[in-house]
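hiii, so i know i said id send this last week but things got crazy w the move. better late than never?? heres the sequnce for the chain we talked about at the cafe, plus the structure i predicted for it. fair warning i was half asleep when i ran it
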Amino acid sequence: MQRVEIYTDGACSGNPGAGGWGALLRYRDIEKELSGGELETTNNRMEMTAVIRALQALKYSCNITLYTDSKYVMDGVNEWLPNWKKNNWKTSNKKSDVKNIDLWQELDALLPLHEIRWVWVKGHNGNVDNERVDELARNAIKNLSTSE
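okay and structure toks below
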């Protein structure tokens, strides 16, 4: 199984507001950058979209080390997701729908395709690759405003 490193980040100008996401995929010495944005979104949605788009870009099942500065995504995958599924995509009170249910379901469908080790990195703390995907996300927001 191929070993791949992935760095992801999301950003928002206002929350909600214009948002961008960035991802860096690295396989051996090959790197691929991905980014995109939406005019009206939230930071959490952009963090999730970065992970989803990165996983979708892989052509084969991979052994992935995924670096993110989003506790929301990491905790969601590693802690909350099993109960949400058990509760039919309801929060712990079993009354409210899970926020961002569409993206959580999309991510949930991608997770079994790969072996993923999640690594949290502190954002804006000098990690070169995390800073790089942050820049991709912020540039995606700028590109939204210049394309109008």
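btw The mean pLDDT is 94. thought thatd interest u
miss u guys!!
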